[in-house]
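Worked example 3 (structure in, sequence out).
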């Protein structure tokens, strides 16, 4: 995953992560905040690498869908840009 994609995913997770299943929350948290690999997460949780990949993909898709409906992250990014240009 590219740095820009990881940052975007992290922002979405921070904004809407509580709307995901507890399992998806845990997997995405380990991936984004603890910088664990898919293999490490799979081993720690006792599940397959594919199950981890699926949770990450489905979680990111769901977070993106929510953002497309709510637009909170975009609003925050816009406000941050406005503040930067004023300084």
């Amino acid at each position: 995953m590219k740095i820009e994609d990881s940052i975007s995913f992290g922002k979405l997770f921070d904004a809407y992560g509580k709307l995901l299943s507890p399992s998806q929350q845990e997997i995405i948290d380990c991936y984004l905040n603890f910088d664990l690999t898919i293999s490490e997460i799979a081993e720690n949780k006792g599940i397959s690498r594919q199950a981890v990949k699926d949770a990450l993909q489905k979680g990111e898709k769901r977070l993106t869908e929510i953002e497309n409906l709510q637009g909170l992250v975009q609003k925050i990014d816009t406000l941050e840009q406005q503040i930067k240009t004023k300084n």
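Notes: The first helix runs from residue 3 to 16. The mean pLDDT is 96.
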